[in-house]
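Question: what's this shape?

___
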Amino acid sequence: MAAAVLFFCFFFADSAWLLFVWRGFSAVAIAWAFCIVIELVVGRPRPFQEFHDHTLGKYWTPNPSFPSAHATMAFATAMFVFVVFGEVFGIVFFSAASVIAISRVYVGVHYFSDVIAGAILGSAVSLSVFFIIQSL
């Protein structure tokens, strides 16, 4: 998703929009940092660890499950795109973020609450960062 934002900005935007892109990456990076801290504090095991599904255990690192970092970053990106580029692009990116979140539950690496928390965290942090930077 971030690559799509970069593509749009480099080919269809002037240098003022590039500043927004760097702000967007900042928002996503800050959301990711919050997510990692919460993961380490909560320490919730992944569903395949709880239910002893050794099939997935071969492919996934044993890092904590709550909240979903994929959902956090996807929704942080989607919120940034929605605020900066408008409703049409925002809907596309929120749809993609939703598919990412649902896929995490579907493959068994997150609980539904993990991706909901990630979506809320990513959206809230991205929106907050955007408005804090705008006020400076």
The chain has one domain: 2-54+62-135. The radius of gyration is 16 Å. The helical segments are 2-12, 15-42, 47-50, 54-57, 69-85, 87-106, 112-135.
